[in-house]
Design brief:
This protein is mainly α and 311 residues long. It contains 11 helices and 3 strands; from the N terminus they run E-H-H-E-H-H-H-E-H-H-H-H-H-H.
């Protein structure tokens, strides 16, 4: 009992001891962060300000962009500051906040992608009933349910992981606090409960994946029956990015949770974490907005007003 100490802060992994490399990391990730913020905020601004984009699909896209802003803001600013200040510490409360908000945004994004797949299913497979089914109130309820689901799910994980004090190692082999690496320094009682929650989460994720596969099977079969080549291309361009993002997001999460936690491969840990914390928020505006003609036109109009306000 003399050696028992309650941990009040953690040490995050340092990816290089060379000062120049640390600064390079900070600059590189700052550029990625600013690019993600600019892309997502431009998408949100375009959708909110253009009345032609006030439809269910763009409503869900604006929610997705908002989630991406939150998701990337949970981890990158702290990592950038740590790289510049050579400080790798994070408080126990700060670690809890990181896990809560990262899990919250990730779970909400998965739920929202399921809602978006249903929207595309109705739009393509039942176009005559689209306006009757996808009413503004129903879209709002679907989006609200996604946010509430993410909040409850995140609260369960965070509450379980921090219900007992940490008394082992305070070194986390990642550039932020994520569930697998924090579990590694948790008590066995917390780990047992958390693995049960993760198993339940995997079951729900599998259910979401099956739902998406069924939805997109109907969607693709309907698209292939369309007589117009232009109509087939337009339909596929509005729904295929959602499936790609979901698969990328789900695979990265599974690798993070079930993959080996290597203490000797920081670069591998960094690359795995980037695939689900940085890549989706950075790529979503490119996949969705830059491939969408209506959003591109509105975005360019906004940029021209900012650069040439008198014109």
């Amino acid at each position: 009992m003399d050696n028992f100490t309650i941990i009040m802060e953690f040490f995050l992994m340092e990816y290089s001891s060379i000062r120049e490399v640390q600064v390079l990391h900070a600059v590189l990730f700052l550029l990625i962060y600013m690019g993600a913020l600019m892309g997502n905020f431009l998408s949100i601004t375009a959708i909110v300000t253009d009345p032609h984009l006030h439809s269910p699909m763009y409503f869900f896209l604006s929610n997705l962009s908002l989630l991406d802003v939150g998701c990337i803001s949970v981890t990158l600013p702290k990592f950038i500051v740590n790289s510049l200040t050579k400080s790798q510490t994070i408080s126990l409360l700060g670690c809890a906040f990181q896990i809560f908000f990262l899990t919250f945004f990730a779970a909400t994004e998965i739920a929202l992608l399921v809602s978006m797949s249903y929207d595309r299913f109705v739009a393509i497979c039942q176009p005559l009933h689209y306006e009757i089914i996808m009413t503004p109130s129903r879209c709002f309820c679907m989006a609200t349910s996604s946010w509430l689901t993410g909040c409850v799910y995140s609260a369960l994980h965070t509450g379980n992981m921090f219900r007992l004090p940490f008394s082992g190692s305070n070194v986390i082999h990642q550039f932020f606090c994520d569930i697998p690496h924090v579990l590694k320094v948790s008590s066995s009682e917390v780990c047992d409960t958390e693995y049960v929650l993760l198993a339940s989460s995997a079951t729900l994720l599998l259910f979401c994946f099956v739902f998406l596969i069924i939805s997109y099977t109907y969607i693709f079969s309907t698209v292939l029956k369309m007589p117009s080549v232009e109509g087939r291309y337009k339909a596929l361009s509005t729904c295929s990015p959602q499936l790609i993002i979901f698969i990328l997001f789900a695979l990265a999460g599974v690798i993070s949770v079930l993959g080996p936690l290597s203490d000797t491969s920081p670069i591998q840990n960094l690359l795995i974490a980037m695939t689900y914390t940085i890549l989706p928020p950075f790529m979503n505006p490119i996949i969705y907005s830059l491939r969408n003609t209506k959003i591109k036109i509105t975005v360019w109009r906004i940029i021209k007003k900012v650069i040439f306000p008198k014109n």
